[in-house]
Amino acid sequence: MGQSLTIKKNYVSAPSAPIQHDRDPVAMLFHWAETRPKSTYLRQPFNGVWREYSWAEVADQVRRMAAALKALGLQPGDAVALTGKNTAHWIMADLAVGMAGGISVGIYPNQASETTRYVLEHSGTKFLFFGPLLDPQQLADGIPDSVKTIGMPYPDLPETDYGWDALIKEHEPLQDWEPNDPDAVHTMIYTSGTTGNPKGVMLTTRSARETMGGVINRLEFRDDERFFSYLPLAHIFERGVVELCSLYVGAEISFMESLDKLASQLAEVAPTRFYGVPVVYGRIQSGILEKLPQKKMDRLLRLPIISGLIRKKVVGGLGLQNARMVVSGAAPMPEAQINWFAKLGVTICQGYGMSENSAYCTTNTPTENRVGSVGRPMPGVEIKIDEATEEVLARSAATMLGYYKNEEKTAETITDGWLHTGDKGRIDKDGYLYITGRIKDAFKTSKGKYVDPAPIEDKLATDGAIDQICLIGSGMKLPVGIVRIDSEDDKAEIAKRLAEKVEALNKTLEPHERVGKLFLTRDEWTVEDGLVTPTMKIKRPQLEDRYRNQVEAMLGHDDKVVWL
């Protein structure tokens, strides 16, 4: 099994691993700038043309921007926010904030202006780095007057107080730098929770070092790694697996220019590691099936020689032919979908983590991949299951200091070093963790019995037409599903397929769990309308509010599957 584990009933822990790079992330930048100064670190596309920044050039700009921030009055411990699409300058700004002694705060580029204002005011942000956005005015409307803005060097930005290029030219590189206190906060990740205002998760430099030490020891990185960055850098998933990993293993990062270029630029970059969330893999799957329908694919994959050519062509077309590890995280991925990709030769490894533990908890690997699980603990991580509630508890050096300005919630979440994840789970005899639902997602039907929606959603979500699904039913006779369809297939054909799936599934469920109806829609569920988080997790209460009136009006419909 590779990594030795201590396994007891409902408890598993992994041994600590020696940290290969016991350094500050900024120090790692300077390490590579000294040892491979001319090698490319960041690749930024402009109108399809790649602008490459070497390690030495990035280090020079970081030093200059750090000097500029200090000259503008930034004090140690001051908060500095960063927003915009993923770019080379997002990374440079983050490193400059760290070098200047500030605390970086990521702002999701497409969140509501009210949420932006809350985060900026709650964190006490002094400066905001402003990058390219689809709707820059929406974010600009949420910036308090007290926050000074610094525009990154990209077109079509609103007017800002300072410009990146001007500040770089005006300041000499900062030289007299010492690493920050490893136990001081270096970043705050504002969780994109499904209810209430986001909470500021305080993470230290030590947690970053501990995380990277374990990642390097477990996941076998090489010296020619290439990453592709497109998930929001404000989220801990992308910050950890792309930005931090790139610094600690010396990897090159290429950024996505725009969503419509995701497929073409991913194929062009052909990364050695690819990270995604389930909705991304769902859309990749839909794209493949549009060109190669399921029945034809199944027939071709049964042919001995042709099957290999088909797999090679599909995987190469996706840009995953060089990927040594393909990871899904941030939300559960249906087991059937993982198996679908496996037939094409793409092994998807699910991992598990939260902002509250630096996204460092468990993972599968290409050599230890148990489909349906989220893997085994990373080095130095302990996992146990609360016998009364089935809640997953985790403990490691990667755990947050707490929630900023929220001692009460911190005390509820961390007990004796154990992080209460809010997820339900189980551990098998070999130490693999399985997430079985969210404690707060369970709802009570009019029959007075609770329904845990996650396992049912997982079994329904195997149809390629389904982009996302949300089971609701509080106070109803039976639960019903709201389904977002991402397919141009005939509506009647989709409804017929899903009706057969519901009928088969209901035979396996308890009477109070059986799905009464599915309601289908092609409406987009977006961050802007508050129906999903920036990492595309469904906001169940908001979706229920959005559709409840329509659903209740159509409950008397004879068909099992109904288009809204």
From TrEMBL:
InterPro entries: AMP-binding_CS (IPR020845), AMP-dep_synth/lig_dom (IPR000873), ANL_N_sf (IPR042099). Residues 30-404 form the AMP-dependent synthetase/ligase domain. Pfam families: AMP-binding, AMP-binding_C_3. One of its GO terms (cellular component) is membrane. Keywords: Fatty acid metabolism, Ligase, Lipid metabolism. Transmembrane segments: none annotated. One of its GO terms (molecular function) is long-chain fatty acid-CoA ligase activity. This is Long-chain fatty acid--CoA ligase. It comes from Abyssibacter profundi. The lineage of its organism: Bacteria, Pseudomonadati, Pseudomonadota, Gammaproteobacteria, Chromatiales.
